[in-house]
Write a structure and sequence with these properties.
CATH class of chain B: Mainly Alpha
Largest sheet of chain B: none
Order of helices and strands of chain B: HHHH
CATH superfamily of the largest domain in chain A: NADH-ubiquinone/plastoquinone oxidoreductase chain 6, subunit NuoJ
Helix content of chain B: over 70%
Radius of gyration of chain B: 21 Å
CATH class of the largest domain in chain A: Mainly Alpha
Helix content of chain A: over 70%
Number of domains of chain A: 2
CATH topology of the largest domain in chain A: Four Helix Bundle (Hemerythrin (Met), subunit A)
CATH architecture of the largest domain in chain A: Up-down Bundle
CATH topology of chain B: Helix Hairpins
Structural class of chain B: mainly alpha
Distance between the termini of chain A: 68 Å
CATH architecture of chain B: Orthogonal Bundle
Radius of gyration of chain A: 21 Å
Number of strands of chain B: 0
Number of domains of chain B: 1
Order of helices and strands of chain A: HHHHHH
Number of helices of chain B: 4
Number of helices of chain A: 6
Shape of chain B: elongated
Shape of chain A: globular
Oligomer: heterodimer
Number of strands of chain A: 0
């Protein structure tokens, strides 16, 4: 059952990401990104991270993609296709980086496998523990407060930046 | 046989198969990263670049959570991922405000045409 969920969500993630990169219409690309982000949320659930998966859907699928759609509708007029001729150099770069990345990943996984912990069969609910860790002084209280200040700065900054410039009279 | 030895002998169900191996999650994460990189490198519309950045952040998050689960680091991986999600949302808000300003000033959001910071 868990394997079935993993394969489903992994396929959703990868196909969503590929569609996002290669589709002609940017609106389709945004919706493909929604599919990919939803697949990542499902992968979080198969990893036992229930709160994180819900956060992913709330913030990414509900928030970031709506912002992206607004930006697309406000700015983009034409559709563009990925030109393979112009980007002929990019394919080997991406491929080479992919191979390197994969070797690094498997290397880390082998090192980790020596002292790694087999996860328990039944994941525990995490929401309570995450809330406690966020507000505990020795754990994540300082980053939590710093992020609060940062979000306030972002709120004000986004308004200031996006506002039309005042024309001198 | 005492209960303690039984607990050692019984294999956890989740530790087998695709969903029970770190490598399968790392594979999906690497593919996500490469898709994001390809979007950043090949597209000229700045919104595609933003979406590529989001994909790369998600790939990193998936790694955090997978290593946290299979490496026995408890909730630290998930907490880091939560902070990354928050920062990604903040980044998206600021970046889209900048995109709107670029569109107002240049009449286009082609990354190859926005080449000056002043009037």
């Amino acid at each position: 059952m868990l394997d079935f969920m993993f394969v489903t969500f992994a396929a959703l993630t990868v196909f969503g990401a590929l569609t996002m990169v290669f589709h002609r219409s940017i609106v389709h690309s945004v919706f493909a990104l929604v599919a990919a982000l939803f697949g990542v949320a499902g992968l979080y659930w198969t990893l036992g991270a229930d709160f994180l998966g819900a956060t992913q859907i709330l913030l990414y699928v509900g928030g970031v993609t709506v912002l992206l759609l607004f930006a697309v509708m406000l700015t983009t007029r034409e559709t563009t296709r990925v030109s393979l001729a112009r980007n002929a150099l990019m394919a080997p770069i991406v491929g080479w980086l992919g191979v390197t990345l994969w070797q690094a990943y498997t290397g880390v996984a082998v090192v980790l496998g020596a002292g790694g912990v087999t996860p328990s069969a039944e994941p525990e609910p995490t929401t309570n523990a995450i809330g406690t860790a966020l507000l505990e002084r020795d754990a994540y209280l300082l980053p939590f407060e710093a992020v609060s200040v940062l979000l306030l700065v972002v709120l004000v900054g986004a308004v200031v930046v996006a506002r039309r410039r005042q024309e001198p009279a | 046989m005492p209960d303690v030895e039984l607990g050692v002998l019984v294999q956890p169900a989740a530790a087998t198969g695709l969903a029970g191996s770190l490598t399968s999650y790392l594979f999906v994460s690497a593919l996500l990263f490469l898709c994001g990189l390809a979007a950043i490198l090949t597209r000229r519309n700045v919104l595609y670049v933003l979406m590529g950045v989001e994909l790369i952040l998600n790939a990193a998050n998936l790694n955090f959570v997978a290593f946290g689960r299979f490496g026995g680091y408890g909730l630290d991986g998930q907490l880091t991922a939560i902070f990354v999600i928050l920062l990604a949302a903040a980044e998206a808000a600021i970046a889209l405000a900048i995109v709107l300003r670029i569109f107002n000033d240049f009449g286009s959001i082609d990354v190859t045409r926005t080449d000056s910071l002043r009037d």
